[in-house]
Each structure stands twice: as structure tokens, then as C-alpha cells.
Amino acid sequence: MSSANPAVREPSQTYAWYVVGVLMIAYTFSFIDRQILSLMVGPIKADLGISDTQIGLLQGLAFAIFYTALGFPIGRLADRHSRRGIIAWGILIWSLMTAVCGLAKSYTTLFLARMGVGVGEAALSPSAYSMIADYFPKEKLGTAISFYATGIFIGASLALVVGGAVVEAVMHQPTMMLPLVGEVFSWQATFFIVGLPGVLVAALMLTVREPARRDVIASDDGTVQHVPLGDVWRFGKARWRTYLGHNVGFGLMSLVGYALLGWVPEYLIRIWGWSRFDAGLWFGIVVLVSGVPGIVFGGWLADRFRASGRGDGAIRAGLIGTIGLLPFAVGAFLCGNPWLALVLLGVTFFFQAMTQGVAPAALQLVTPNQMRAQMSALWIFCANLIGLGIGPVVVGLFTDRVFADEMMLGSSLAATIAVATPVSILVLALTMKPFRQGSEEAEAWG
Questions:
Q1: Which domain range does residue 320 map to?
Q2: What Cα–Cα distance (Å) separates residue 361 from each residue in 17, 74, 141, 153, 295?
Q3: Is residue 219 part of a domain?
Q4: How far, CA to CA in Å, does 12 sit from each of 131, 134, 149, 361?
Q5: What backbone phi and psi angles, to 5 degrees, belong to 43?
């Protein structure tokens, strides 16, 4: 095989940013649907009679099972077929499955419904990263993907702020009567309220055009072909230091992020006696005000590093964020004051957010077009297996098994972060050299 870069008509940058905006809205709704559960820990535990570890499994493993398992086959479809259509169907599925969570009458049925949410959301990011890489030149890719990734923090903050108000409003009565559904617990009604509007976002996705593919690998006669799965495997295996280091290093930062998003609201409620509305409001503000600037700054910094000739710019920017967050994240749960904790968490989320936009952008810079969605799916598999699948559960296990006291939740969060972050720093530092080499190789594709 040889590299090729067929002539591709440059899309309008105005329209390209419109596409990123639509994708960001979809990502925002996906995080609302997955994050809303963090505000209902207490009521769900009481009504279903479950432990912190089981809550951690609902927040993480239940969602991550199919979200990670289906990412690769969906990514392979996205490298061959319409990414727009795949995303639209995914939005519709996860929105409806979020509403189905409102029908759950037991832990098992809620677990299965959360798995269904993961099925739908698996369609979004691999396809979105690939589309954005075809709409933007490489020197703007970090900024563009970081803007898309602000959906993480906008969605999480909206789930906390708006969700906190909704949860507080419906919790005044233990059960509610809904048309066609009948009597449900009040927390179940919340899933209907946040899930069903996503159907409109699926319709909005149909206004997006499928972009022409660029930076493709072509056969020796110059024709563009689909890359066999064996070639994808060999390509990744030959560059295992780049992909493994990237996925593990940034995956551990996802672990920190999901642990915080999954448990800080309950920490404020359980340890400091805050109402669900106050916990959602103030933590949601912190996530929004700190996370969005952090993720945009990280993408900008990665692009600046690349413009200055540093091929490892994306890894370098992520490493800065990882080093920066450690003292603030641990200190937030040892300071003994909830307001100071929120300030320290604000700094934490700025640095943690820097890693979230540059991670997927980095992959697009060292991967050919026909493999991008698949390699992105592999990254999402690792990020969510490590981050979403393990992060919330580890916190619950620390509380239930190590400290054996639910009032030690803050210590559980601090311990999780203190273990994961130094390992992430080491792995990303070791990844810089092979990533530079991969970036130089990728210049041959155009």
C-alpha cells in the first residue's frame, strides 16, 4: 500500500464550525443522560436497597459494557459508511433508553437499561472525531475537537444544575403518576424528563452533510480502498508504544474525571449536608466555568506546540494538565471545608479538561483516514473501561471495603486520584518520543 491524499474540496469553515456545534450539542445531551444518575444516589439506594459499590456499577460498568464493546464494530462501520447516519441513530437509541431507565422497577432492570444507553452512545464519538478531522486542517484540529469535547462539561454541568432542580422538585413526593406509564418513583420521572428531548437532537443531526474523506491510504494504483481489519491490526501493532501509551495515560485521566463527576455531588450531600439542588447547582457551575475553558485551552496549546514544530504537542499539553491537577484534586478532599473544596475542584477540572480534548485530537494526527474511527473506538474502549468502568466503582469499593464507612467518601476520592494520577504522568511522559515519530510519519499522508 502507498499513501495518498486525493484532492478534496475544502469545506467552508463557517459550515465546518456549524457541524462541530451540532456534534457538540449531541455530546452535551449524551453527558446529561449519563450524568443525571449522580444526583439520585440517595433515593435510588433507598428505593432499591443497594450499596455504594452497586451505585458505582450503575454509573460505570453498566454503561461501559456495551459502550466499549460496540465502539470498535461501530467505528469500523464509520470508516466505510455514512458517519452522519450512524450518529443520528445512536442519538435516538440512547435518548429512548434513558427514558426506559424510568421504567425500571429493580436494580437488575435499571442496570440493563443503563447498558442500553451505552449502546446508543457508542455511535457518537468515533464517528464525530473522524468527521471533524475531514472538516478541518491539521493545524486547527486540536481546537476543533476540543470545542466538540466541551460537550462533556456543558452536559455534565447542565445535568447537575438543571437536573438538581428537577430532582429537588420531584423528590417532594415519593411517587408520581405519569400518563401511559402509571405510578413510578420520583427519581424515575427524572429519566423521562432528561431523555426524551434527545429525539429532537437526532433530527438536528440530519442537517449535517457527510464530508469527503481526506488523508487516506491508497493502493499502489492510486485507488482508495477500504482497509482490511488485518491491516488495521498490523498498523496499530507496529506503533503499539504510541497507542498503548496514549490510551492508558489519558484513560487514567478519564478515571479521575468520572470518579469526580460520579461522586462529588453525593460527597457534598452526604458529608456536608447540602441539598441535592445546592450540590447540583454549585458543582455544576464549577464544572462549567472550569471545564470549558480548560478543554479549549488544552486544544489551543496543543495546536501552538504543533505550530512551533513539536510533533508531540498533543501529548505535551495533556501531560501539563495531568501534572497540574494532582495537588488540587487531592487537596479538595482533605481541606475540611466544602467551599474551599469547590474552589480547588475548579482548578482541578481546568487541568483535567486539558487532557480530554487533546486525547482524541492526538489520534487523528497519527492515524490514516480509513482507520481513524476504529482507532478512536479503541481509545474510547480504553478510556471508558479504565475511566467509566473502573473509576466510580473504585471509589465505591474504597468506601465499602477499605474504609468500611460511607462517611469516608472524601478519603475514597482522594485515594483514587492519588493512585491514578502519578501513573498517568509516567505513562504520558514515556509516550512523547514514539508519538513524535508517528507524527512525522503521518506528514507523508498530506
A1: 10-214+231-445
A2: 16, 19, 6, 17, 12
A3: no
A4: 14, 12, 21, 20
A5: -60, -40
Residues 208-262: pLDDT tens digits? 998 887 766 555 544 445 667 777 788 878 888 989 999 999 999 999 998 998 8
Q: What is the pLDDT of residue 230?
A: 77
Grid cell, residue 354, equals 486539558
- Residues 26-74: tens digit of each pLDDT: 988 888 877 777 777 777 887 788 888 888 788 777 777 777 777 778 8
Residue 427 lies in a domain: yes
Name the domain count of the chain.
1
Integer angstrom CA distances of residue 63 from 6, 58, 67, 124, 287 = 39, 7, 6, 14, 21
Measured CA to CA, the distance from residue 62 to residue 46 in angstroms comes to 19
Predicted confidence band of residue 418 (pLDDT cuts 50, 70, 90)? very high
Backbone φ and ψ of 239, nearest 5°: -120, 35
Given pLDDT bands bounded at 50, 70 and 90, which one contains residue 2?
Answer: very low
Q: What is the pLDDT of residues 138-164, one digit of tens each?
A: 778 878 888 888 888 888 888 788 777
Residues 6+ apart with CB under 8 A from 404: none
Residues across the chain:
446
What is the rounded distance in angstroms from the CA atom of residue 199 to the CA atom of residue 91? Answer: 7
* 224 falls within a domain: no
Strands 2-3 and 217-218, by their bridges, are: antiparallel
Q: Which helix (H) or strand (E) holds 217?
A: strand 217-218
Cα–Cα dist 251/404, whole Å: 28
Burial 5-21 (b: 16+ CB within 10 A, else e): eeeeeeeeeeebeebbe
CATH number of the structural domain spanning residue 111: 1.20.1250.20
Q: Indicate the burial class of 64 (C-beta count within 10 angstroms; 0-12, 13-18, 19 or more).
A: buried
Q: What is the DSSP letter of 222?
A: S
- Residue closest to 439 by CA, chosen among 316, 323, 354, 357: 316
* CA dist., res. 141 & res. 316, Å (int): 16
Residue 321 near residue 354 (C-beta atoms within 8 A): yes
Question: Residue 39 domain-assigned?
Answer: yes
Cell 464544572: give the residue: 287
pTM of the model: 0.76
258 by DSSP, 3-state: which? helix
What is the torsional sign of CA 427, 246, 322, 264?
negative
